UniProtKB/TrEMBL annotation:
It comes from the Eukaryota. The keyword Phosphoprotein applies. InterPro entries: ACP-like_sf (IPR036736), Adenylate-forming_Reductase (IPR051414), AMP-binding_CS (IPR020845), AMP-dep_synth/lig_dom (IPR000873), ANL_N_sf (IPR042099), FAR_NAD-bd (IPR013120), NAD(P)-bd_dom_sf (IPR036291), PKS_PP-bd (IPR020806). Coiled coil: none annotated. This is Carrier domain-containing protein. Keywords: Phosphopantetheine, Phosphoprotein. The lineage of its organism: Eukaryota, Fungi, Dikarya, Ascomycota, Pezizomycotina. Residues 553-630 form the Carrier domain. GO terms for molecular function: phosphopantetheine binding. PANTHER family: ENZYME, PUTATIVE (JCVI)-RELATED (PTHR43439:SF2), PHENYLACETATE-COENZYME A LIGASE (PTHR43439). The keyword Nuclease does not apply. It comes from Tuber aestivum.
Amino acid sequence: MPARIENTPAPMDEAPLTLDHLLRLRASQIPDTPVLAYPHNKKDYTQYTAPQLNALAYRAARHYKKSITQRTSSETPEKVVALLGISNFDYVISLLALAKLGMTALLLSTRISDEAYRHLLNKAGCLHIIVQPAFEKTMERVRSGHDSAVNVVRMASRGVYEPEADPKEKGLTLEDMRFDTELDMEVEKSRSALIIHSSGSTGLPKPISQTHLGIINGAFGMSRHLATTFSALPIFHIYGIMVLFGAIYTGKVTSFISAEQPITGKNMIAGLKATRPGMLHSVPYTLKMIAEMGGGIEAMKMCKFVGCGGSACPDELGDKLTAAGITLVSYYGSSEGGALLNSSRPESDKEWSYLKAIPHALPYIRWDKNNEGMYELAILPGWPSKVLTNNPDGSYSTRDLWQRHPTDPLKWKYVGRLDDTIVLSNGENATPVALEGSVRDNPYVDQVVCVGVQQPTLGLLVIPSERAIGMSRAAIIQKIWPSVEAGNSRMPAYAQISAEMIGFLPIGTPYPTTDKGTVIRPAFYRTFQVQIESMYARYEESNASGGASLSEEELKAYVRNTITKALKLEDATTLTDDTDFFSLGLDSLESMQIQGSIRRELNTRKQIGQNVVFEKPTVRKLARHLYRLRTGEAEKEDDGQSQIEIMKGLVEKYSHFEQHVPANSDKQGDYIIVTGATGSLGAHLVSQLATKPSTLKVYCLVRAKDQPSAHERTIQSLKLRRTYEDLSAASLSKIIALPSDLSDPHLGLSEDVYAELLDSINIVIHCAWQVNFNMDVSSFESAHIKGSHNLMTLCLKSRRSGPASFNFCSSISSVASTPGAVTIPETQPKYEGAMPMGYAQSKLVTEKLCNAAAGRTTLSARVLRIGQISGDTRFGVWNATEAIPLTVRSTKTLGALPAPVNDEVMSWVPVDVAAGTIIDISCLPPIAQKEAPVFHVSHPKLLSWNNDFLPALRAAGLEFESVKPTEWVRRLKAVAQDADVNPEIKLLEFFEGKYAADEVRNAPYFETVKACAASGVLSGVEDVKGDVVGRYLEFWRQGW
């Protein structure tokens, strides 16, 4: 069992202000304590005390003063001197020497291009560079292409700074060994001590300054684990810097592996055995090498702690080390914010991958939730180590994504970078870090990178390790497949890897990495573009039709078996010939994989459509379609049924309702059910309802596994839309989130909860609906059409004096294709009026159910057709991934916006206005009518794109050129097709369709006479112009 470690460093008599001040304080306070060790002969470690390091740095500084003019006043600008070399003892002493001279040290990686060196030298204004002999030729090339002369100085070696003590040094005090006596330390503490740089993964590397106080703050953050330390980290990265100065700060010796030898598992084990440290600091790649080497686990178990940082440790590797009895501590920090979180915890806690903020950083951390339920870490103003700002409030958004611990709100698990996100061609987002980590930990894998930007599915490009020499592709896949499956288990279904989407590069293939061994993803994609494209081409070719010719009955069996395997159904009887695949949980990735299996295994003669599984979502429909493709038999839609007949059949199936029977409930006031509370409109509904004095309870029916999860999703939705802060404790107490399943007759609720709702509910607002424009109308049956019927049944079973009112949030898409209509009235729909997609058709079906319920029972059912919703009027929160925000964002890369020749007119209703309108109408006294009334929740006044919206954007400070739509699309197609850089490229196909010509087709006008008469909110709504557009732009720009 690891021994107890001290909790406090050796005491400080005063707070250090600069790095040299820190070194001199420690030299005075702990003169006989070793703080650093280095193996000059690659084997035996020489230890150095703080006074010794101070004297060596003094001698090196005296040497450098001969070539570099010292800075002598805090009123003069910072003076930057670069260091280039491996992280050996000479490098450490030179770094400390520059600190003595009051210089700012630019720490250059040894693995970047000549162009990158020139760029960094220019950006930092650096005219002096201290270079180790091995890199002098590199600097000759850099100097030849540099705009100004750079003074190259050879790095001082031990012969310069570590001879026998100079007689002149006898009697010198620590104060005498200062060169910065004319500098004001109160000023210098906030000046740049060091400049490090980014990896340059998305272009040229970026210099990032680190202040004296910021580094000292980070060194203090490292002091949680006080132990003798062994480090294999380069000093020109922030983690290595913190370990170095953390050793001086804590007074615990840190031994650095020899930089003159390669970092291998064997050398690491030798270093651990030679130094027998209490703690090891390393990056995941090095830990993997040690763990795979014989005796490596045992060597690490000698340490009380093993620290891992620099990049995320794969779950498999961390779990393996933890299971072996190693106390693994993950560290998170950044060049922009220093050390922030770690997984320090009691010995009994094995959750190594969940990190907590270090105590003094906690007040300076903010967690910003995104639409995928993950959180981006932001660093707030006031944190000493924060050196950059990228938000109007002075905070810094790190672009690092995290998941909250399911039960402990202070614990967080790193997920990946926003830069790591891969956007598939269907618009789905995937963060592959966990998947890659699982596969990378396999001993037959040297490196693996997930690919698939703007492709239909993810793929893996694998570089096998030397263990795979002589093995076939199939044999390697067999060896790594358990790791692939483990990674798949951590991914959403649409982002899982199939065996045919694994490609291989030759063993030993070099690939672009950072100094920490992390793959530079964009550079990897560029380097292996041909191989990636070939992998997808082979996949498409393998999907070409040419397999078995089956009868219709055989096709049914084939489809049933394929679906059963794809969904891993334990009970095959749940899949009948007419069961909708999507009601069983089929997703877009699985449907695509099924489509690929059909192409490979069946002879269909004709190419099957991209959405065939969406369009034919039952065994019967898909088998019949495949049979007719092969035989050439004329396609008859759904066995003679048109889409209208299908809709009519669904209406007939669900139009049977029981009559309301009053019971003895004594409830008064409004008890309201809201579905869709986790969406934008639903969040505004819930918050506005909760503030109404007449509202006693708001029950949110949420798709979630349990009540805590339902509550968490609801509250986070309110926070995301900025409605949470306005709710008092009394208002919040009205909100009750319940996990539910609307397809269940009792809505997935327990008998007690369902009975409670029957006893109290008097209003239901049904806002939840799956937004998927590929699915057939029949795929909306179970969760949505049947779910609506179940909610109406609940209303009719109410034990209050009358049934609860049912207020259905429909969509203008249910009538937007009404033939020849220029103006669409607030009346019952016609079947042919729905847009030709399952989403719109399912909305129309449910409108018809409302009408049937109103006509056959005493239910007060209302249809509220929702138009185009825009951001709220107060904060301008409008989902940046929607079409309008993405169009506006294109000004960042294109400098232009489309301006249709005939102008485009829109009817945008702000989301808070839409919610207020729905509430006004839903809270009207229930009236039994023979027909469900229809209300259009749409803006009464039209907005002109050319004459209103574009001028409002300009007035808000956005600069752009107005161009014809076809020209705008041309420019969009010409820019980089990287969705991280240009997110608007995700909707290229949509934009190509909308702007196929320079004139646009305007939608019909939706009357709002009845809605305005029923709602004071809608009748009084202001135009969406001026200040409102300015707030939209301000919100979008925060994400640019």
